[in-house]
UniProtKB/TrEMBL annotation:
This is CocE/NonD family hydrolase. GO terms for molecular function: hydrolase activity. Residues 472-492 are annotated as: Disordered. The lineage of its organism: Bacteria, Pseudomonadati, Pseudomonadota, Betaproteobacteria, Burkholderiales. InterPro entries: AB_hydrolase_fold, CocE/Ser_esterase, Galactose-bd-like_sf, Xaa-Pro-like_dom, Xaa-Pro_dipept_C, Xaa-Pro_dipeptidyl-ppase/CocE.
Length: 573
């Protein structure tokens, strides 16, 4: 039963309509709370929907925003600054998706694909909100990450009263969210299981998609096959999830689907975005390459009014989320309130450039003209614009041996470094790393990170690239210079002892290397648990280590031109 409450602090009063029941077309009811000002008048509404629990989002009224690495940071408090939303003249509607929190129904698989589409539920919710006496019929949406992805799913259904959306930090290509270059990433586990600094999904009635579509005997065979992967078998948490999947249903589904395909494609908002014709503002900060990629892909698909805003490092926003609200309210004041504030007169794309700390603007991504140029790996751990002239008989390969983390806690790293830059050198776009490598096992990870190293030694991460060796197959039709694509639809074991060319895609970035700074590229097959970058991310934001001992030899000679291919911007007039 719904009830009315009042919240007040510092002379500010908010009227709260608690536990409103919203009927869906199949009879299931979703639970939402509505926060509004005291004056009894209709306002535009901003809807925030997720599986993380509406009661958790209410902490935005009482908890100061926390930045990583605060122990109070909780990655799931993402619905926005409730008090400010109300102060700006909007109704803030926060609710639970089906099968979670106080809502009814069943949620099957991530984003409820395999059950009732969350986009369908969001359509019904938006139209219900628009008809309420406290709403003036103009509806937008709010929230980052999961909440951001929900906005795209909603807009693809084209509800008549959804006038615009503002998406920050959403996750779109769901395979690329969970497997970076084919290497399993642990952070989605936190959002679903509630580990490593996240409350996780507010489970009430959720089911595994894999358990829905496979008979128990068939599923057991699939689980046994997955456990034969030495990387999985060496990681205790994964063994546990596969043996005891109950209450870890969504993470179980992700672990069981290590290749891209229909299970991921049907839940990919980018494939649905061609239906969207309302205005869309896309915002993402640097340092989380995989989500920068998704925002760019989505921007390129959208056909209506759109903006792409790539912000500054570091990668994680506060929880409760408060950033980007100034931009968001300018966007919604224009599209929901009809205020001519000039936002549509500004460039469609704006990108913060690390180093110079200026903003590059343009009509497309990248916002400036670029040319791809190589930096070659050379002997003595050097990076150079000139290729190596000696053959492999003289330029012996670099290498490293990585023991499994079951027997060591040491993560081995090899690096190459440029000479100090003599003048400011700007790069904006995606990149590639071509590595000619020999390994003595059927598989490994290649994890490459680019750093900007200042003269005093302080470093900032610029971008990363990851590739599981067995996923080295390229999509030749989609791949271009500096922008390779891997289909990830099959795994092809490596022949030990054979030199292969591995092409890693470097996630989009924007940086200027200042005079005296160096570009450092690091290569490893496992990640350090904490360093200058990882300390800014939740504790679970690392990748599945290699579960077997591997010797890696990196050839960089006249026959094997291992190199980076980077997006240097052309000189401006």
């Amino acid at each position: 039963m719904s009830r009315q409450q009042t919240w007040s602090a510092g002379g500010e009063r908010i009227e709260i309509l608690k536990d409103l029941r919203v009927p869906m077309r199949d009879g299931v009811e979703l639970a939402v709370d509505a926060y509004q000002g005291e004056e009894n008048r209709p306002r535009p509404a901003l809807i925030a929907m997720s599986a993380y629990g509406k009661e958790l989002q209410a902490l935005a009224l009482t908890m100061p925003p926390q930045r990583r690495p605060s122990p109070m940071w909780d990655g799931c408090i993402e619905a926005g600054d409730i008090a400010r939303v109300v102060r700006e003249g909007y109704v803030h509607v926060i609710g639970d998706v089906r099968g979670t929190g106080d809502s009814g129904g069943v949620m099957i698989g991530n984003y409820n694909f395999g059950g009732v589409s969350q986009g369908q539920d969001l359509y019904d919710l938006i139209e219900w909100v628009a008809a309420q006496p406290w709403c003036d019929g103009n509806v937008g949406m709010i929230g980052i990450s999961y909440f951001g992805s929900m906005q795209v799913l909603a807009a693809a259904e084209r509800p008549p009263h959804l006038k615009a959306i503002f998406v920050s930090g959403g996750h779109f290509d769901f395979y690329e969210t969970t497997y970076h270059g084919g290497v399993m990433w642990f952070m989605p586990r936190a959002a679903r299981e509630g580990r490593g600094g996240d409350s996780g999904i507010a489970h009430t009635n959720v089911r595994s998609r894999m358990q829905e579509v496979h008979a128990p005997e068939e599923l057991k065979k699939l689980v046994d096959a997955r456990l034969r992967d030495p990387d999985v078998a060496a990681w205790p948490n994964l063994v546990h999830v596969l043996k005891y999947p109950k209450n870890r249903e969504f993470w179980f589904d992700i672990v069981m689907n290590e290749l891209d395909g229909p299970w991921y494609k049907e839940r990919n908002p980018i494939t649905l975005a061609a239906n969207i014709d309302i205005p869309v503002y896309l915002q993402i900060d640097q340092g989380r390459g995989w989500t920068v990629d998704g925002h760019i892909d989505l921007f390129n698909v959208l056909k209506g009014p759109k903006k792409l805003d790539i912000g500054a490092y570091p990668p994680m926003q506060s929880r409760p989320w408060i950033e980007e609200h100034d931009k968001m309210f300018r966007w919604y004041d224009h599209w929901l309130k009809g205020i001519d504030n000039g936002i549509m007169d500004e460039p469609a794309v704006q990108v913060f450039v690390e180093g110079t700390r200026e903003v590059a603007t343009g009509g497309q991504w990248p916002p400036r003209d670029i040319e791809y140029r190589p930096l070659y790996l050379r002997p003595r751990r050097k990076l150079s614009q000139e290729p190596e002239l000696m053959g492999p008989e003289h330029a012996a390969p670099d290498g490293f041996y990585q023991a499994p983390l079951t027997v060591t806690d040491q993560v081995e790293t090899i690096s190459w470094t440029t000479a100090p830059f003599e003048e400011p050198t700007e790069m904006i776009g995606t990149g590639a790393a071509h590595l000619f490598a020999e390994i003595d096992q059927p598989d490994t990870n290649f994890i490459l990170r680019l750093w900007d190293e200042a003269p005093a030694g302080k470093r900032q991460l610029i971008t990363t690239g990851l590739l599981k060796a067995s996923h080295r197959e390229l999509d030749e039709q989609r791949s271009t210079e500096g922008n390779p694509h891997h289909p990830h639809t099959r795994a092809v074991p490596v022949e030990p002892g054979q030199i292969e060319e591995y092409v890693l895609r470097l996630y989009p970035f924007a940086a200027t290397f200042l005079p005296g700074h160096k570009l450092v590229v690091e290569l490893m097959c496992n990640e350090p648990m904490a360093d200058e970058h990882n300390a800014l991310l939740p504790p679970d934001a690392y990748h599945l280590p290699v579960g077997r001992p591997v010797t890696h030899k990196i050839y960089r000679d006249a026959i094997h031109p291992s190199r980076l291919v980077l997006p240097f911007t052309k000189p401006r007039a």
